[in-house]
Inverse folding.
């Protein structure tokens, strides 16, 4: 909940319910916060996005866009490519500012790889 220091009540402009998630919008006085209402909703969201990738996008994107990022909006089925994670998410946010997207890296099992490789 966002509270400006001089106000005692939460700022109503910050609260918005979108699908199965609550998103706290950034208006200069609050932080972005995404909270899934429960894990099954989040798992279903991810499953639908990964299904769209596997059935419709993989064969199209992998031959020419390996290592790029794709943000998938599962409700519409739309996707947004970017050379970086930021580019893909920014394009998706411009098209669907009030929806969540799932980001994947084309040709990889995960969008980001953390850690080191021991050889």
């Amino acid at each position: 909940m966002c509270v400006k220091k001089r106000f005692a009540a939460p700022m109503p402009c910050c609260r918005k319910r979108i699908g199965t998630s609550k998103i706290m919008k950034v208006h200069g006085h609050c932080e972005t916060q995404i909270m899934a209402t429960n894990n099954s909703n989040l798992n279903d969201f991810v499953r639908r996005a990964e299904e769209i990738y596997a059935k419709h996008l993989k064969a199209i994107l992998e031959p020419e866009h390996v290592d790029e990022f794709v943000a998938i909006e599962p409700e519409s089925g739309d996707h947004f490519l970017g050379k970086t994670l930021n580019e893909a998410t920014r394009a998706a946010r411009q098209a669907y500012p009030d929806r969540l997207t799932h980001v994947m890296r084309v040709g990889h099992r995960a969008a980001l790889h953390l850690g080191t490789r021991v050889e």
Notes: The helical segments are 39-61, 85-95. The radius of gyration is 17 Å.
